[in-house]
Every structure is written in structure tokens, then in C-alpha cells.
TrEMBL record:
It comes from Rhizobium lentis. Transmembrane segments: none annotated. It holds the Pfam family SBP_bac_1. Keywords: Periplasm, Signal, Sugar transport, Transport. SUPFAM superfamilies: Periplasmic binding protein-like II. Belongs to the bacterial solute-binding protein 1 family. It is found in: Periplasm. This is Probable sugar-binding periplasmic protein. Part of a binding-protein-dependent transport system for a sugar.
Length: 348
């Protein structure tokens, strides 16, 4: 992003750059993005790309970015052999999850694999807030940034639930990369990871199969909703001699064949809702069905931790407060709520 900023400032725009939603909108507002509308119309993107993604890939009526995928963050990834060993079953509520983590602890297995980095902690907290408060509350607090929701008893309870769950991590979690936490679950050193579906890419790379080697469940209490982020190719306003290449890249990116082939490997799901799920494994099929249902039901929400709930300054303020709470620098859920409201206020 730093290199991109320097290129744009110097007027040497790249043909395309991989970006997240609010960054696309920032550059579009600055008037430096290209226009893919003709291609989008010809290929029917407006009918196949979920409206939540179009909010970031279309600016002022023009298509300026091509979405590559849809990731969702409200997942549990569980080692099946460990689950069988402890006699566990799918947790349907937050209390069920705590009971499951207790079983793992009693069996001498690390219950929760987590990397102590602010984005990982906040990604998990996204799911906890949705589970604790429900879909309308999540939207109000983390997409609309409604102050009443942010300072409510429900948000306080969400922080209480975060305090409960982080007691199940191992002492060495601080600074651990997300993929190393995933590896703990793959190897059976830990029972569960709460992480976006890019974690599934690690299981696939390790030649593991859903329902045989690992289990994928929605975070308890969030079934029916999807908290998403999406990788996009933002397209810049380049000279005519580079526009054909740009259109070719955009067309290829949103082709059904690419959307299937890429997302099968990445762990995410297609950025269009008309791609067959034929080549996807059980978790991918569930992800595709969940996205379709959430898109139709109005329960597809931008992840605040992943840069789709609010602009970067607000997302960074949020991650900072959540991390301070996890690492004991903020001592109570009351104080956490006060600091969250203040930090978001300052970031606005």
C-alpha cells in the first residue's frame, strides 16, 4: 500500500492493484480509478456480484474494481481426531463452545489456537459480537457505528465473552502468525481456531479433507449471517494502450472458471453468486450456500477487523482497543467499552 501510494502520487498509476474495499473508494474519490462499466454491463456483473461488494467496487455509478473472492470470518476450524477423542459435538451456542473448550483442556489439548496480533484478536471479536448481540446489533455497532450500540450493555457482554474465551489460549500465543495457529489445529496440538476461511487454504495445502480430518462450523450463534471481506483488483485510469490488458484482467478475474479455480484453492468463495459449487469441498459448498442466503436475507455484514465494516482509521482504532483488552492493558469490559467509543470517536 505504501508503494502504491507513492506511485499514485507520482502519477505513474499501475494497471491494477490488489486492494480492500475502503482503499478502493479512497482512490475512486481522488479521481484516479479507471472505468470498467462497459465490460461489467456486457458480462452482467451487477446481477451476479452481491450488492454488499458492489458498494466497494462501484463508485459514482462506475465499476472501478473487480472482486476476486468473498472471505468470511465467522468460522470455527476444528481438528476432527481431537474432537472425536474428547467426545465433542458441534457447539450451537457460546456456552456450548466454552464447554467444548473445557473438554479439550481436561484432555490436555490446547483448546484454542490464537495468534496474539491485533487483527487476529479483533477478527475473533467480530464473531463474538455477532453471536452475543445478533445480526441487527452487529450491523448497528460495526457497520453503522451507532454510538448507543457501541456503548451498550450488549457490547459490554461481548467483551465479557471475549475475556472468557481467551483464557483457553496457550501462554505462547503473543505475536504468533495466523497460519502457525492453523498448523496447531492441523497437527492436533490444538482443538479449534476462530479464523477467516483463508485458514481452509492451509488445511487444503496440508492435504486434509473436511469431515474426515477437520470440521468447519459457523461460530456458535452466527448461523444465517456472514461477516465478510473481499480481495479486489482496483483498476486505475491508465493510457489507452494499457486499457485492453486491464479489461482482459477484469474479465478473467470475474469469469466463472477463474472464480471457481482460484477460490477452491484459497478457501474463500466466488465473488459472484452464479458460480457452480461442483468443484468445492464440503466447507466450500457451505460457504457458497451461506453467502447466497445472507445476500438474499440482508445478513451479509462487512468485517470491521478486516477493513469492510468502516474506514481504515476506525478499523485500526477498534483493533487497538480489542488487543489492549486481550493483553490485559484494559482491565474491565466497562473500561473497554468506554475506550472503544472514544477511540472510534477520535478516528472519525
Amino acid at each position: 500500500m505504501t508503494a502504491l501510494k507513492a506511485m499514485v502520487a507520482a502519477g505513474t498509476y499501475p494497471t491494477a492493484s490488489q486492494m480492500l474495499g475502503y482503499t478502493v473508494l479512497d482512490y475512486a474519490e481522488a479521481g484516479v480509478m479507471g472505468d470498467l462499466t462497459e465490460t461489467a454491463k456486457k458480462e452482467g456483473w451487477d446481477k451476479s456480484v452481491p450488492a454488499a461488494l458492489q458498494k466497494f467496487s462501484v463508485y459514482d455509478g462506475k465499476w472501478v474494481a473487480a472482486p476476486v473472492n468473498v472471505h468470511s470470518v465467522n468460522w470455527l476450524w476444528i481438528n476432527k481426531a481431537v474432537m472425536d477423542k474428547i467426545g465433542g459435538s458441534e457447539p450451537k451456542t457460546f456456552d456450548d463452545l466454552i464447554a467444548l473448550l473445557d473438554k479439550a483442556k481436561a484432555a490436555g489439548v490446547i483448546p484454542l489456537a490464537l495468534g496474539g496480533q491485533n487483527w487476529q484478536e479483533a477478527t475473533m471479536f467480530d464473531s463474538i459480537v455477532l453471536s452475543t448481540g445478533g445480526p441487527e446489533f452487529y450491523k448497528k455497532a460495526f457497520n453503522d457505528l451507532d454510538e448507543e450500540a457501541l456503548k451498550s450493555e450488549t457490547m459490554k457482554k461481548s467483551f465479557d465473552n471475549l475475556a472468557k474465551i481467551v483464557k483457553y489460549v496457550d501462554p505462547n500465543f503473543s505475536g504468533r502468525d495466523w497460519n502457525l495457529a492453523t498448523a496447531m489445529v492441523i497437527k492436533g496440538d490444538a482443538l479449534v481456531q476462530v479464523m477467516g476461511d483463508w485458514a481452509k487454504g492451509e488445511f487444503v495445502a496440508a492435504k486434509k479433507t473436511p469431515d474426515t480430518d477437520f470440521l468447519c462450523y459457523r461460530f456458535p450463534g452466527t448461523d444465517g449471517s456472514v461477516i465478510y471481506n473481499s480481495d479486489m483488483f482496483g483498476m486505475f485510469n491508465v493510457p489507452d494502450d494499457r486499457k485492453a490488458a486491464q479489461v482482459a484482467l477484469a474479465t478473467a478475474t470475474l469469469s466463472k472458471s477463474f472464480q471457481s479455480a482460484f477460490n477452491v484453492v484459497k478457501g474463500s468463495v466466488p465473488a459472484r453468486t452464479d458460480v457452480p459449487d461442483t468443484d468445492f469441498d464440503a466447507c466450500g459448498k457451505k460457504g457458497i450456500a451461506d453467502l447466497k442466503a445472507a445476500n438474499e436475507g440482508g445478513t451479509l455484514f462487512g468485517s470491521l477487523a478486516q477493513g469492510y465494516g468502516a474506514p481504515p482509521a476506525i478499523a485500526n482504532a477498534y483493533k487497538d482497543v480489542v488487543s489492549k483488552f486481550v493483553h490485559g492493558q484494559i482491565k474491565s469490559s466497562d473500561e473497554a467499552v468506554t475506550q472503544l467509543v472514544q477511540a472510534i470517536d477520535d478516528a472519525r
